[in-house]
């Protein structure tokens, strides 16, 4: 798939309202097509969902080439903009991060979710100056090749419970301001679901904010009222699908009946047509 700057501009504009951008996360071509046909204007990928489907745990354990192949397969299957969840880009230096962005652009991806978690319990977040430099490098590179690329900069302060609870807002805000000022187009704060704190963060940052929809998160209409620009759902749909698979396995083993995979299933002909486009 070739890169289409108009799709990148479309994705960027979707962050500017007036409606909240609801961005479902696909993990393969079929799930991407289902979301596209449902009417979503853009989709994201799920790094965890892709990793699980390829037989890896989450946390940058999947080979980067396998991740890129999975993302490419999603991009080639849909006609709407695709932004990729690339964890911390499977890279170490700012230069390597820029190379990863170049690879994404080459396969038609128009945005990236980029997190500051290291995966190391002893040092859970990349140092802020280091992460800021990586963001600057991404924006400098995309500007140099005159490509629009929507960067969603994520901090895991709340998700990982970094620091004392009373200090968490300040720690997250400091990082998000730095990521915003380095050029991030949207700021992602997974693990945050308190409406008062979300509202305060929106006002303090005056910039598009992404919230993760999960158990305990305010509804999408409520998030929209709070001023949130974007809501994504991570690996939730993939894990829900695996829950169905587990129920199918239990039913086949225990009762020998078929309702777990016949009730609510997309008919064969419909799904076949969906993938035929």
Task: Give structural attributes.
alpha/beta; 2 domains; globular; TIM Barrel; 277 residues
Explain the overall architecture.
This protein has a 9-stranded parallel sheet with strand order 1-9-8-7-6-5-4-3-2. It has 277 residues and is an alpha/beta fold. The longest helix is centred in the C-terminal third of the chain and has 19 residues, at 236-254. The chain has 12 helices and 9 strands. It has helices at residues 5-14, 29-37, 47-53, 64-77, 94-106, 128-144, 165-182, 195-205, 220-225, 236-254, 259-262, 268-276; strands at 21-23, 25-26, 43-45, 82-85, 111-115, 150-154, 186-188, 209-212, 230-232. Helix 2 (29-37) packs parallel to helix 4 (64-77) and helix 7 (165-182) runs parallel beside helix 8 (195-205). It folds into 2 domains: 5-234, Phosphoenolpyruvate-binding domains (TIM Barrel, Alpha-Beta Barrel), CATH 3.20.20; 236-277, no CATH class. Strand 7 (186-188), helix 8 and strand 8 form a beta-alpha-beta unit.
In short:
This protein is an alpha/beta fold and 277 residues long. It contains 12 helices and 9 strands.
CATH topology of the largest domain: TIM Barrel
Q: Shape, please? A: globular
Report helical residue fraction: 40-55%
Name of the top-level CATH class of the largest domain:
Alpha Beta
**Low-confidence parts:** none
Let me know the CATH homologous superfamily of the largest domain: Phosphoenolpyruvate-binding domains
Order of helices and strands: HEEHEHHEHEHEHEHEHEHHH
Write down the overall mean pLDDT: 97
Proportion in β-strands = 5-15%
Corresponding CATH architecture of the largest domain: Alpha-Beta Barrel
Strand order of the largest sheet: 1-9-8-7-6-5-4-3-2
Distance between the termini: 16 Å
What's the gyration radius in Å? 19 Å
């Amino acid at each position: 798939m070739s890169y289409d700057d108009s799709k990148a501009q479309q994705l960027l504009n979707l962050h500017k309202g007036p409606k909240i951008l609801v961005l479902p996360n696909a993990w393969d071509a079929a799930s991407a097509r289902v979301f596209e046909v449902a009417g979503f204007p853009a989709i994201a990928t799920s790094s965890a969902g892709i990793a699980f489907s390829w037989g890896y745990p989450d946390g940058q354990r999947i080979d980067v080439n396998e991740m890129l192949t999975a993302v490419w397969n999603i991009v080639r299957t849909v006609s709407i903009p695709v932004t990729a969840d690339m964890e911390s880009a499977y890279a170490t230096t700012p230069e390597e991060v820029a190379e990863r962005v170049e690879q994404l652009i080459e396969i038609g991806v128009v945005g990236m979710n980029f997190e500051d978690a290291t995966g190391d319990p002893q040092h859970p977040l990349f140092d802020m100056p280091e992460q800021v430099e990586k963001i600057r490098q991404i924006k400098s590179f995309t500007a140099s090749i005159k490509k629009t690329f929507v960067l969603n900069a994520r901090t895991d302060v709340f998700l990982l419970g970094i620091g004392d609870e009373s200090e968490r807002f300040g720690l997250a805000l400091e990082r998000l301001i730095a990521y915003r000022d380095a050029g991030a187009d949207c700021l992602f704060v997974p693990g945050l679901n308190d409406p008062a704190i979300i509202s305060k963060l929106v006002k303090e940052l005056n910039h598009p904010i992404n919230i993760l929809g999960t158990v305990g998160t305010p509804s999408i209409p409520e998030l929209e009222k709070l001023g949130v620009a974007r809501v994504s759902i991570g690996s939730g749909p993939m894990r829900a699908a695996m829950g169905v698979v587990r129920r199918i396995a239990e039913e086949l083993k225990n009762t020998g009946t078929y309702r777990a995979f016949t009730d609510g299933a997309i008919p064969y002909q419909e799904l076949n047509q969906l993938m035929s486009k």
